[in-house]
Amino acid sequence: MRKAKRMAKAKALVVKNLTYIRLKNDLAVIENEMNNNQPVEKENGGNVITKFFNGIVTELSNTARRKSVVDLSVEKKMALDNLTAFERENNVKELELASDVEKLKKYMNKELFKKDAYGIQKIQFALSLMLDNSREYVRNEESLQAISAILFNDEGYMNILFKLFEQNYYGIQKKAVDELQTGMLLGVGVWSLVVGSWLPVGIGGIATIINHLIHRSEMKKKFQSLSKDELQAFLAMKLTVIETTRKNMPESARKDLIDDLLKYVSNLRGDAEYEWLIEKLDAPANKEKIELCNLTVDRLSRVIGI
């Protein structure tokens, strides 16, 4: 329990600082575009005719640039308002890690990803961060680049990762991610499912296994409270992890991930069948869960190339 509380506290602190960095980067991207669209001086070289045409071209270009700056000014105000609101809501001391990226990385690796086999938890954390819509970003993809560089040393990785998630989410049930009630995956309940749902690769010792099974029992109760869309997002996240880690882990470890997902699907299906056929509870909802399980297995076959 103490360890879970410590991780939840660390996660909250990291999310705050990454959000702060992203909001500042959102503003910086727009300001940079404004600087690049400032009017330019016309070229004075050449003869009278050349100067005349250069003047016309420059004026046309500057008209477009002025319009861009006006449009960008609106976006800048939105980004600045978002940043200012965040700064008002948070304690300055809690945001200190945002000013020291290397210190932030060390803190994350120690508190969140110390025992992260093959980067699985980091991928899940990144996906849950991207699904959170508690903050608005004017330049969604561009602002994410700074966070991606911190987490993965690659500015473009998180945008690619999210596109894979979108494909898996849609691939399960032909439903787009923008229809999902985003933001939920950073909730306390679902976050604990996200970081604790994989059986650690290479797990050993009967005590460790028993503790893990007890944890699984607690997680089952949380699963029962999730909506169909939340379950679909959770399963799509697992599929995305399997897809993205296939090149950087041994085949045996990859099989463990696939087997673990199949066990969750099997348990979910079994519970739904029991409630529908034995308890005679909420038949439509339980039939939907059974269908979701079948579609997830079908999508898994595509992800692993079978």
Structural overview:
This protein is mainly alpha-helical and 306 residues long. Helices cover 73% and strands 0% of the residues. It is built from 11 helices and no strands.
How does the helix and strand content classify structurally?
Answer: mainly alpha
SSE succession: HHHHHHHHHHH
Distance between the termini: 40 Å
Overall morphology:
elongated
What would the average pLDDT be, to the nearest integer?
81
Secondary-structure map:
Blueprint: H1 2-36, H2 48-89, H3 101-111, H4 120-131, H5 140-152, H6 157-173, H7 188-196, H8 206-224, H9 228-244, H10 251-277, H11 283-303
Helix pairs in contact: 1-2, 1-3, 1-5, 4-6, 6-9, 6-11, 7-8, 9-10, 9-11, 10-11
Q: What distinguishing features does this structure have?
A:
elongated, 0% strand
Q: How do you describe this structure in short?
A:
With 306 residues, this protein is an all-alpha fold. The chain has helices spanning 2-36, 48-89, 101-111, 120-131, 140-152, 157-173, 188-196, 206-224, 228-244, 251-277, 283-303.
